[in-house]
Design brief:
The complex is a heterodimer of chains A (about 110) and B (about 110). Chain A is an all-beta fold and about 110 residues long. Chain A is about 0% helix and about 45% strand. The N and C termini of chain B lie far apart (about 35 Å). Classes of the chains: A mainly beta (about 110), B mainly beta (about 110). The interface between A and B is medium-sized, with 26 and 28 residues.
């Protein structure tokens, strides 16, 4: 089971770029890296997913180095509404069965005015 | 399309009682997973059901059980409630339960045990 390590918390200010790094040293060849965002009293929601190099969508960018032992979620020009907990997940989409996703505690991002 | 619906949203129970929580997945989704979320432990996996069969189970005591019906709706039951069972219980639905980017969560049921 892949294990991930993220900072427990981060602080930022409106308009800044925020980078959250996740370590996943035992990532397998077929593993994808996926990030979710969770607001208080809501369930997590999917943000972005990648396998290697860089992925960008309308919400964020995901940078994955060649060794794939870490990944960085980049949130451009954050606003107060980006205050949330961010989870990094690693897993094999082709796993036959019994994937026990390990969500961990995530990174609590606080955006200040 | 309708999202994942969890009922009830809030629940207060006393120790020793039992509780049943319900989750209606997105139409067409056959996998439903349940999680317990507490401030100190984060999101912890309870179990996953796919086509009415429990496909995976986390490390929770037997007091926690679940089932899935033919329409994919799922229920989880906690018997002999303990104070430590107070948590936000989340369910996530997905088409197959295989894609990491395919999980849609409900807003959860906040259970308070007094």
């Amino acid at each position: 089971l892949a294990k991930t390590t993220q900072p427990v918390s981060m602080d930022s200010y409106e308009g800044q770029e925020v980078n959250i790094t996740c370590s996943h040293n035992n990532i397998a060849t077929n593993d994808y890296i996926t990030w979710y965002q969770q607001f208080p009293s809501q369930g997590p929601r999917f943000i972005i997913q990648g396998y290697k190099t860089k992925v960008t969508n309308e919400v964020a960018s995901l940078f994955i180095p060649a060794d794939r032992k870490s990944s960085t979620l980049s949130l451009p020009r954050v606003s107060l509404s980006d205050t949330a907990v961010y989870y990094c997940l690693v897993g094999d989409p082709g796993t036959g069965n019994n994937r026990k996703l390990i969500w961990g505690l995530g990174t609590s991002l606080a955006v200040n005015p | 399309k309708a999202g994942v619906t969890q009922t009830p949203r809030y629940l207060i129970k006393t120790r020793g009682q039992q509780v049943t929580l319900s989750c209606s997945p997105i139409s067409g989704h056959r996998s439903v997973s349940w999680y317990q979320q507490t401030p100190g432990q984060g999101l912890q996996f309870l179990f996953e059901y796919f086509s009415e069969t429990q496909r995976n189970k986390g490390n929770f005591p037997g007091r926690f059980s679940g089932r899935q019906f033919s329409n994919s709706r799922s229920e989880m039951n906690v018997s002999t409630l303990e104070l430590g069972d107070s948590a936000l219980y989340l369910c996530a639905s997905s088409q197959s339960g295989r894609r990491l980017d395919g999980y849609t969560f409900g807003s959860g049921t906040r259970l308070t045990v007094v």
